[in-house]
Specification:
Chain B: InterPro entries: MlaA. Chain B: Keywords: Lipoprotein, Signal. Chain B: This is VacJ family lipoprotein. The complex is a heterodimer of chains A (204) and B (253). Chain A is of the alpha+beta class. Chain A has seven helices and five strands. In chain A, a hairpin with a 2-residue loop joins strand 4 and strand 5. In chain A, helix 4 packs across helix 5, helix 4 packs across helix 6 and helix 5 runs parallel beside helix 7. The termini of chain A are far apart. With 253 residues, chain B is mainly alpha-helical. Chain B has a domain of 155 residues. A two-stranded antiparallel sheet of chain B has the order 1-2. The chains are: A alpha+beta (204), B mainly alpha (253). At the A-B interface, helix 4, helix 5, strand 4, strand 5 and helix 6 of A face helix 11 and helix 12 of B.
Amino acid sequence: MTQFTMNNISRRAMLTGVAASFAAFGLPGIARALTPASASTLVTSVVDDINSIINSGRSEAAILRDFERIFLTYGDVNTIARYALGADGRSASRAQMAAFTDAFTHYISRKYGRRFREFEGGRIEVNAAREVKNFYEVRTTARLRGEAPFSVVFLVSDRSGQGKFFNIFIEGINMLASERTEIGAMLDRRRGNLDALIQDLKRA
Amino acid sequence: MQFIDFKAGRVFFAAILGLSVAGCSVPDQPTEIHDPYESTNRRVHDFNRNLDRTIVRPISEVYGEGVPGRAQQGISNFAANASLPSAFVNAILQGDIEGAGQNGFRFVVNTLIGFAGILDPATEMGIPEESADFGETLAVWGAAEGAYVELPVLGPSTQRDAAGRIVDIFTNPLSYALEAPVNALPPIAGAASRFGDRYRFSDTIDSVLYESADSYAQARLLYLQSRRFEVGQTNDDALIDPYEDPYDTVYDE
C-alpha cells in the first residue's frame, strides 16, 4: 500500500513536472507562441542547471557530460549546427547532416562546458526578457568571485516547434558567429572534407 | 600656467591626430569585418603568437604561480586605480557625467583609504569601474571604426582603437602629476597586471591561440565583437537570425 502510494505520488509529480515543462516550452504540433515570460522560464531552467553543475564539485568529465545534456535539452542543436556549417551544409546529404549535428553537439558542449566551468563558485542570475525580431532575448548576469559582474545573453525561439535557445552571447561575443568562423576554418584545413571533420569533432 | 597650456595643447593635438587617423578609413559597417590589411595582419599575428609562446606565457606562469594571490590582486588594483584618471577624462570627453563621477569617486576613495589603490574599497561599496578610453571616446564622437589591425605586441585592434591608444598615452593627468621615480610604478604594475591576466585566463586564451583552426580569424572576431559590445555599438538588426538564413532553413515556416 505504502509502496503503491509512493509510486503514485512520484508518478503524479513526474507527470505534473512533464506537463509543466510542456506548458512552458511548447510541444511540436501544439501551436503555443512563446512569450517573454516563457522565454525567461526556459532560460531560468538552463541557468539553474548551469549553476548547480558549476558548483557541484564533480569531475571535469562528469561536468562536460552534464553540459551536453543541457545543449540537447534546451538548445536548438539542429539550427546551431546548420548555421555553423554555413554554405558548406548545402551539399551535405541528410545522413552527413545528422552525423555532423551529433558530432558538433558533442564538440560544442565540451567547448562551452569548459568555459562555463571557469564560472565555478559563481552564479548566473536571470534579468529581463524582451522580444527582438522574431525571437526573444533573455539577459542574465554572471557574478563570479573577484570579478566585476558581466553580461550573458540567451536568444530563444520556438521555430523548431519548441522553445529552445539558439545563441549565447558572453560579453557580446556570440556563439553562432564564432562557431561559423571556427567550423569554416576547420573544414578548410581538411580541404572541405566533411566526413573527416565529423570524425575529428567526435574526438574533440 | 604656460606649462599647463602646453600640456593641454599636446592633448588637443593628439586628439586631432587620433580623429584624422581614424577618419581616413572607409565608411563604417559595424556588423562586418573590414580587414584590407589581412596578409600583413596575419604576419603580425604569427609574430605575436610566437612572442606569447616563447616569452609572455612562460613569464605569466612564473608570475602567476610564484607571486602570492593577494599580492597579485594588490598589484592589479594599484594599476587599475592609477589608470582611473584617464578613464575619468575620457568619460568627461564622452559627456558621460555619471561614469566620470563614478571613476572620480573610485579614485579618491581607493587612493585615500585603499592605500594608494592597493585595496579596492570602492568596489565593496558597490561602485565598480566604468572603463573608458580614447578609442571609445572617438566612437562616441562619431569616428568610424576603420580597418581591423593586429598590432605588434599589443594584439588585436582597429584603426580607431589604435589611434585611441596613442592619444591615451597623454590623457592620464596622473602621469603629469607624478615625478620620477614614482611615475615608473603605474606602468610597471600595469605590465605585471597583464601577466596576471594572461595567467588567470590562460585556458581561454590558449584555446583561441593554440587550439583554434584559424587563431587569427577567431581572435579578430572575438576582439571586434567584444569591443563593439563595450563601445555600445551593437544593434538588434545585427543579430543573426539563423532561421532566416537563405540556405539554412531547417524548419518549414
